[in-house]
Design brief:
The protein is α+β, with helices and mostly antiparallel strands and 274 residues long. The chain contains 8 helices and 13 strands. A 4-stranded antiparallel β-sheet has the order 2-10-6-8, covered by helices on one side. The chain has a 4-stranded mixed β-sheet with strand order 4-3-9-5, with no helix packed on it.
């Protein structure tokens, strides 16, 4: 704060050598320094253990999937296999395109909402559109939103279900929505098998490239084949996934508490309050 308040320059603050030389720095005896470092090391070790546990938990859903259903690529359990086209209630559909001449300002997802490890509802921006969002373009928890095109081949076609419907937000034309028949495919099963390496291999194999951008279209996505285990077994998987996600939420809260504790200890250490 002292450096910030004393910096000079209107556009970009400048810190002088004289300011640094006058800056008071708390000093402690060597034993006191070691004691403080030991406390901070313990807090940092707790954060490291938390992070390691988070990584192991993230692997639970794919591991459980393969234990229950086997490898979709080899289909060793001989489940029925169907093209995506036969598993949808309505045809795939593109999102809405923004318009520079549009009269309506509305919210729309960014591509980052679906290209991470899960759906990120915070990745929303405002754009102008030629018309008010139609229902088919609104973010719906029943739609698997997939990446229509990307410069990274590993991201094209990847997708996630929204955690909840967002009726005031549309999905953009950089995404394709797939609405699976819930009498055939459970939502959690669909998302996991869709992002499995075997399905990803099908998608990337068929992706077209134009000017360095890999793309998929409705025809390609309709032709992707998925194993379809009995629905009751898919529901068992979904119940286990719900428990795992509940655990992940608790771990996220624990991580935040540990991060807050570490930064509080760090602040107190440099104020000589530990």
């Amino acid at each position: 704060m002292r450096l910030r308040s004393g910096s000079q320059g209107s556009a970009q603050g400048v810190i002088s050598r004289e300011m640094l030389e006058r800056l008071p720095v708390p000093t402690f005896s060597l034993p006191e320094q070691r004691r403080i470092v030991a406390i901070l090391d313990q807090a940092e070790n707790l954060r490291t253990l938390r992070e390691q546990a988070d990584h192991r938990t993230a692997d639970l859903i794919p591991a459980l999937f393969h234990e229950m259903f086997g490898d979709p690529g080899t289909n060793s359990k001989l489940w029925p296999v169907n093209p995506v086209q036969q598993l949808l209630t309505i045809p795939p559909r593109n999102g809405i395109s923004p318009s520079k001449q549009g009269r309506y300002v509305a919210k729309v997802l960014t591509l980052s909402a679906i290209t991470g490890d899960g759906f990120d509802a915070a990745e929303v921006k405002e754009s102008t559109f030629a018309a008010i969002h139609r229902d088919i373009h609104r973010v719906n928890t029943n739609d698997l939103l997939t990446c229509r095109g990307n410069g990274n081949r590993e991201l094209v076609g990847s997708g996630h279900f929204p955690k909840h419907s967002m009726p005031d937000v549309a999905f953009p034309d950089t995404m394709i929505a797939l609405r699976f028949d819930q009498n055939q495919i459970d939502r959690d099963y669909a998302e996991t098998v869709w992002n499995d390496r075997s399905t990803r291999a099908q998608i990337t194999r068929h992706a077209r490239t134009t000017n360095g951008t890999f793309k998929v279209n409705h025809e390609i996505l309709n032709s992707i084949t998925l194993p379809v285990p009995p629905l009751p077994l898919q529901k068992q998987f979904a119940a286990a996934v719900a428990d795992i996600r509940d655990m992940q939420q608790k771990q996220a809260a624990s991580k935040k508490r540990l991060d807050d504790l570490f930064h509080s200890l760090l602040h107190r250490a440099f104020r000589g309050e530990l």
